[in-house]
Amino acid sequence: MTNNFKPGDSALIVGARSYPENIGKTCELVELLSPSAVSVWLDPEDGRPVANVSGFVCWLVIGDGLISGIENTQGACLAMPSHLMPLRGDFTPEQQKAKEAEPCA
């Protein structure tokens, strides 16, 4: 399932491999990381980047109360794209086109 996510998008966490406590929380997508990649994003608490050691392509996401195994990082975690649901009004181009075609009342 592809959601055409981009950095800055909001999403709902709907699945988790390691931290089910994050399911149901909202987040902001920061950066898509391939396995072994290191983020450009720096943790505001300690100024360190995040390394994707999961073995999967994951989004680095931030949000209040997110739990992760990322050392000394709070409010950020890695999430597989399939574990994220977009939170924006135009989920598909077809839905957007339908909205544009509707007459205003």
Summed up:
The chain has 105 residues and is mostly beta strands. It has one helix at 93-101, and strands at 10-13, 26-33, 38-42, 49-51, 58-62, 76-79, 84-86. The longest helix is centred in the last third of the chain and has 9 residues, at 93-101.
User: What ranges have pLDDT less than 50 throughout 5 or more consecutive residues?
Assistant: 94-99
What is the element string, with H for helices and E for strands? EEEEEEEH
Percent range of helical residues: under 10%
Largest sheet: 5 strands, antiparallel
> Which percent band covers the strand fraction?
25-35%
Q: So what's the overall shape? A: globular
Number of domains: 1
The number of distinct helices, counting runs of at least 4 residues, comes to: 1
What average pLDDT do the residues reach?
85
**Number of strand segments:** 7
